[in-house]
Amino acid sequence: MKKTLFFLLACALISPVFAEGERNPESGLSFRQLLSRVAVSNSSLALPEPEAAVVKDDLSLLADDRSWLTVAASDKYQRTRLLELGLDIVEIEKGVVRGFARESAVREISAGGFRIDDKVSIYNFDKDFPLADAAYHNFGETVEVLKQLAAAHPDETSLFSIGRTVEGREIWALRINPAEKGTAPSARPGAVFMANHHAREHLTNEVALLFAVWLLENKNAPEARKYIDTLDIHIIPTVNPDGAEYDIATGKYRWWRKNRSVNAGGSYGVDLNRNYDARWCEAGSSTNPSADTYCGPYAFSEPETRAIRDFVLARPNIKTLLTYHTYSELILYPWAGSAEPLENKTDLKVFETMAKAFAGFTGYVPQQSSDLYVATGDTTDWAYMQRRIFAFTFEMTPKRWGGGGFYPGAGVIEKVVGDNIKAAMYMLSVTDDPYKLAR
Ligand code: 0X9
Ligand code: ZN
After folding, report:
1. E strands within 60-115?
2. Which domains are delineated in the chain?
3. Which pLDDT band holds residue 130 (cuts at 50, 70, 90)?
């Protein structure tokens, strides 16, 4: 009842603002306009660049020996073991999991006594060319939007890089705070939204970026202004631009998850969501560099995770954090790396209350991360362990493979962004003092 009431109230507050969204004369950018491109397959927001898009014979895919596996597994402990054997679990159903594995991992999974029910080579995947998904923003387009936003809203924003990736791309943070600019410290309560740790989860970049556009476009609406004037808000739309660009570089999706580090032995990539120093590499990660769940040679071995670490540690004012992932439509909170519930019952109450409210806005299912599988070294466990930040992972749309998996198409952007704006606004509404939810 309480939840429904809050939901209706929040919708009433947010929807009129959301519906307005006409072109902002200050910025030349329009939330509505960006969304309207969703329906256009040949827009100027083409992704990837046109010359790359026509590459049909993607030799790198031929060289990719991963398969899509269906493996019998009945509980989270078996799922955790499968992650350790190199299965990149993507879907969980009653009695089985589905995900990617390289040939060496397939052998280990069989040798480990697991039953493989189905196996399809990744090369046989039949996906649309990304040109059909032109509404998504590639890295260059994302940076362009961020720069336009910063230029159009100089009183409220600052744009700065929090570090460089393996391949030298900047990891951009847009700060929304009229009182404190750039990297100046803040005494205001802080909220951080970040996305795209995993390369192929392109929808996450859209949600973070378009939330920034929407919030600034509506900056004078009372519901937005009160947070802009009292909080310290940061939005980091892509933590792993190297991986995201690699995923789309040929014009045919490559199902890439990791960053683009060159590993000892010549394989590529570390799973950034296994590389944080939170029980690093203890469970649900692989020590095999070619595995999709490779935790890296040591905690924070990667410049991308180090950038997030340094960013968070430099800002003790951060109270809430949301890291967007896809897919499965879940709201996850610590622990991810332990099957036990959070020891601190007050904190658990706050996490559970926030998770339920998020669920009201999105329809996603709230649960402790490790109910899915135990996996150590993720962003949220680290942020909570280090700073008691109320840190959440959202696994956004679709619910399952049949809805497009990691590549659900441009048609879902509008609804997913709309639902997630409401959830993001809710997060801002508790950032002043999350503990008010436990009192
Ligand atoms: O495995 C991950 O890193 C996340 N899922 S994803 O499909 N986006 O890769 C989930 C992270 C949350 N942690 C646990 N479920 N343990
Ligand atoms: Zn992910």
Report:
1. 67-72, 88-93, 96-101
2. 2-46+130-438 (3.40.630.10), 65-121 (3.30.70.980)
3. low
